[in-house]
Structure formats: C-alpha cells, structure tokens
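Single Protein Entry

Contents — chain, fold
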Amino acid sequence: MYVASSVQILTSKPEQLTSQNITSAAVIVNNLLSASMLNKSVAESVVATISQLMHTDEDRYSEDTYKALENLTKTLEDFALNMSNSSVLVQPNLAVQSIEVPNWTPQLQFYSTTGLSEYSPERIGLGADAANMASSSGRPVDLLLNIKLQNDSQKDWGNKNLGIGVVLYENDKFFNSKQFNSELNTKRRVVSASLSDRSLLDNVEFTIKPENTSGSASYDFACVFWDYTHRDWRTEGCVKIRDPSGVHCECNHTTNFAVLVSFRADYTYSEALNWISIVGCSLSIVGLVLTAVYQIKTRKQRRANSTMLLVNICLCMTTYYLLFIFGINNPVKSSKASVSEQNVIPSSDLQENIDQGPCTAITALLQYFLLATFAWNILYAAHVFFLIRNALNGPPRAFRTIAMTVGWGLPAVIVGISLSTTYSFRNPLGYRQEEFCWLASLDKAGRFDPKRPMLWGFLLPLAVMLCFNTSLLVYFSQTICCANPNLKSSRATPMKKKILSSFSLAVVLGLSWIIGYFVLITHDKTLYIILSVVFCLCNTTQGVQIFILFTLQSFLRTRTRNKLDSKTESKGEP
C-alpha cells in the first residue's frame, strides 16, 4: 500500500513529470497490478495513478515510455478480468469494471454516460441489460458496447459463470500510432473487453458519439483495434456500419477498440454578394464596355497612349466584375460528412480538402485581374506625370512596350509566386478560402496570418500602388491649382473644372480602395459598418463613375461644342 500511495502522490502533478518519471511510474504500477493479491485500496490507488499518467504530455514520451505503457495496457486487461465480482474503479481518465454472469446470457453490454462527476461509478455500467439501465437513468449515453455470445455457450460451459472485465480509457495517449496523426488535438476513447473464455465470443458491436471540435464536424471514421504485434491501429476483423445516431462498429474480437474520426472544418458559406454588389457591378460592367467602345471609336481625338491605358483598365475591371458576380461564391461546397464504405484508417483527424478546381481558378483570376487593374492605374498615373513634366513630347517612346510588359506581366508574377509557395492540390486552403473564392488570410484558429497570400500577395502590392497613385494625385492637383499669374483671366481654368479633373483622376486610379484599409483596422462596430457600405458602393460603382467622367461627360461636351459650331457657321453665312 505504501508503494502505491507514494507513486500516486509523485504523479499528482502530471505536467511536471519527465520521460523517466513517467516510465518508472508505469513500470511500478504494472508490477503492482501483476501481484496475485491486490486489495481494494491498492487497486484504487493504482487506477488513480494511471489516470494521472494519462494527463501527461505525449511530447515527453520516449520509446521506453511507450513500451512501458503498452505493457501496462496488457496488464490492465488481465487485472479487469480477475477483479472481484461486480467491482468498479472510476477515475477521470480511466474506468475499470468486472462482473460475472450466468452462462446462458446471450449478450453483455457496457455503457458510458455524461452528466455525472468524473469520479462517479454510476457514469459507467456493465451487465446483461445495461443499455436499458442507461436509458432509464435519462442521462445521455456516449458509448455503448454490446458483446454477443455464441448460441451454444450453455453447452460448452455447463453451469459455470462467465467473467468479463472492461477497461475504458478516456484518451489514447498510451497507444502511439505511427499512421494516424492528431493535428486537431482531438481525443479518442479506447475500450477493452476481456472474457474468461474468448472462444464463446460471437462478435462485438459498439457505438460512440464523437465529440466535434470547435469549428469542425465529423467527416469520416474507421473502426480499429490495437495490434500489439505491429504496435499500431489495425482494421482486420472490424467493419463500420452507417448509423445516424453515432459511429457504429462491429468486430469479431475483444481487444482495445477505438474509432478514428476525421474532422472537416464546419464552414459557413456566407453569400458574398448582396443586391448592392450585384446592381453596382452590373451597371459598372455596362459602363466600362461603353467606355472602352467610345475610347476606341474616338481614339483619333486624343493621344494613342491615353486610349490604350484606359481601354486596358476597362478590360481588367470588366473581367474582374464578371468573375466577382459569377464566381465569388464557392461553386463546390464541401460536404458535412462523407462516410466511405471501406474501413480505411485516415492519416489524420483533419480531413484534407482536396482541390476540386473551380474555386482556386476563380481566386487566381480575381487576384490577377485586380492586380492588373491597379498595375494599369499606375501606368496611367505615370503617363499623366510625363504629360505634366513634358507636355510637348509626353512619355518616352518605349512607354507602350513597357506598359504592356508591366500591366500584364507584373500581376502574373505575383500570382505565380502566391500559387507556387502556398498552393497544393491536397491543401488548396493555403492559397484560398473555402467559404468563398478569395485569397486566404486567416490561420486555423481564425487569426490573421501574415504568411497567408492575402497580405503579401495582395494587400502589400496594392498598398504600394495606392501610395504611388495618391502621390501622383497630390502632385497633379497642386500643379493645376497653382495659378499662373501670366495667364489672363479669360484663359484661366475655372476652379470647378480643376476639382472635377482631380476627382476624375482619383476615380480612375482606384483611390477609393484606401477605404478598405480603414475597414481592416477599425474596431468600432458602427464605423466599421459605415466604412464597409461606403467601400462597397464606391468600388462596385467604379465602372459607372468612369463611364460618367470619361465617356458621358466627354460625349456631352463634344455634342455641345458641335451644336455651337453649327450655330456659329449658320450665323456667318450671307
């Protein structure tokens, strides 16, 4: 008793135990369990010690530790079977129970319920009619083990009683699997049943309700047992059965059972589009198409570079709006569960989201055409700068070639780097989101992750472009607003026209996207809603604004000028 109590005290703080401490404690309690005469006090102390060992950190386990723990699980099976009749030992991480039943009993049942203290013996039950006992208690049953015996058991056993011992592990730390990894730190309950004569076993059925982790739901599962020869989980002799009430398995032996469940993130597929976005983007598409057609049709009235730049901006924005309307919502939503027919051990408790194509392609195209839009915005700003600095000669001769290379090539480089460093077919969510087709920005815990492509693949390049465009707008506004004292008042540009020119340049340079950065950093809910609405209105209607400022206004001005010219000519005729 002294040794058992000492080990229990020494392991009372599991977080402080070293690998050697854990190994030594496992060896000692294993020797105690192997003793032929073990009184109740020692047994309770030993079970409490094992429960405490199941609180230890697996990172501290060595190979010797796993061997000692594996031997301990073997000894526990024999101990459970050889305990005195109707004995129950319950601890937070371990429960052991044994009974003897008449030889004619057709089946034995073991259950585990929730809603009681971790130390309460009533949270488990073992008997010929344990399932009804659990139902009558009114407490939820999260594990049910049904052991069916062969019909000829009475003939083989005569009047002898049948002994059974059950061990329930609340986690699988003592079972170190090499082929199944726990990335979500989920726990798997392991249950072992031992019969005094295993030849009487027909089969074992067990149902477990897996615990869903935060933000995820069960996807598939495998019914397994622990193979001491291979020292890993195996599926031989076990099959899984579809059951809406929980995970249901059937095996032809009574070794350490477990259910390996794979989880998939429980996504909320919010609709990224609302009526404001749809109407605004649709009107912008019409406006941009009309602007591009008008610019091409009237290209002889202005410099060739101006037409080329504005048409490319319209092309990029039109493509982006079309992709946004028809592709931003994920067309292939991941299913909540997909229980396969085959009983195959998953590689991890986190189900891999194998890429199905459309959403990743749409994300890449959205990233490309948005970056291309701002690349052409920069080129438009550079063109304006050259016109201000050198009104007669304008930009360099190679400007068109440079513009085509930068406008279409730079975004392709950024998208290529983003895909090559974050995307894989088996894990596309390193590059994009699942809820809707856009760049990934958050880690698995829902926190902003600077390693995701949203930051360096979009926000940072866009911020650099917006800074350049803002500087150009300030320079342009300052230049046109500084009055030339040598000009006569009749030749001076009205202030209204100067403001309109600056506003038009701000629109075509996409400076309304600056509002989006304020949306990201604000913590006030009211301000967040206001900025979000303003950002949505400004950017979904940017195409409409370009149409009004660069097409409709120019068309009306030309039409008015033509009418005035025709009136002047008619008055001048004799």
Summary: The mean pLDDT is 85. The first helix runs from residue 2 to 10. Residues 1-80 form one domain. The radius of gyration is 37 Å.
